[in-house]
Amino acid sequence: MMAGYEKVRELRGDLPAIRCTNCNRLLYRGVAQTIEIKCPKCGVVQLFKGGERRWSKPGGALFGGVPRVVTDSAGRMVAIPGRPERVIALNASNLGLYYASGGNVVGRASTNMLPPDMAEQVRSIPTVGMPPCPDVARIIAMKPDLVLGMHAPMHHSLAAVLEKTGIPVLLQALEHYTDVLRILRLYGELSGNPERAAGKIEEIETRRRELVRQHWGNPSPKVLILWEIADGLYTALSHSFVGDLVKRLGGVNVADIAIDENLSYVPFRLEAFASFQPDVILLVNHGVESVTGTRFYQELTEQPAWQQLNAVRQQAVYQLPFHLFAVNPGPQLGDALGVLADFLYKGHVL
């Protein structure tokens, strides 16, 4: 049955069926001279004119070739240009990955998390505010056809506002090693440089394989990963990004032994992990470059219980480089793996 303007009528099966070319959802039956319709399933807007199917440009956004539908890390199906031409990246990781895949942006977040060469490369590109609080008006004024954001509450709210103006937003979570490779591949397709993205992926994978081969047969070190933020110390499990890398390099995360939960981080309690005697302690800090300025260092020097740990007695306590581990390293993933392997198997005290 279908609703007409005057009464409910039977849906005529002899009329031509018009379906979405992305998801095959039935859009309508019939013939129309000109009609623009949004697929209720995938959200792609299509224009039918004189029997010819075209892609429309809602809000001026979808003009980069034939659109495609992408499911982002938030589980949202987003219709985006097949070849976006005006991209804005709202955080350092997305910016680095898009550039590593051969893409360019017209706007970016203001951030100090970029490596020096990348920071110099994008210095002249207009900024749209800090990653946690982008300037919505400035973004809209730039007329982007794609915005790359984070799978985080503040960017979810931003996406809802931007998409009402016809600007598509991809919310990406870089929580694991494989996420970086997957998003690199996607960005290579969007930028029209799939070979360049594939080359970067192979470079990272080759580095990982080399590191595993170098340390094959060595005893697996027991590792305690600490994450320090403003409200205290947390322990990173293997579901976290750094925990995932440690596991891929052969380390045994003592938090996985002590805590049988599908979590990324839990509040740290020394008594919960002391009995597992970690061989290596790794610290990630979000605000201080020097380990001596951290809350962890204060606890280490003031609480005698820390001195009972093998890692402390052997001086195998390392602060991970801020620029590689405070946020996802993106295209510098190979460098991050190298630093971790060095700390896990050879060791350089910071």
TrEMBL record:
Residues 86-348 form the Fe/B12 periplasmic-binding domain. This is Vitamin B12 ABC transporter, B12-binding component BtuF. SUPFAM superfamilies: DHS-like NAD/FAD-binding domain (SSF52467), Helical backbone' metal receptor (SSF53807). Belongs to the bacterial solute-binding protein 8 family. It comes from the Bacteria. Pfam families: Peripla_BP_2, Zn_ribbon_Com. InterPro entries: ABC_Transporter_SBP, ABC_transptr_periplasmic_BD, DHS-like_NAD/FAD-binding_dom, Translation_reg_Com. PANTHER family: MOLYBDATE-BINDING PROTEIN MOLA, VITAMIN B12-BINDING PROTEIN. GO terms for biological process: cellular response to iron ion. It comes from Sporomusa ovata.
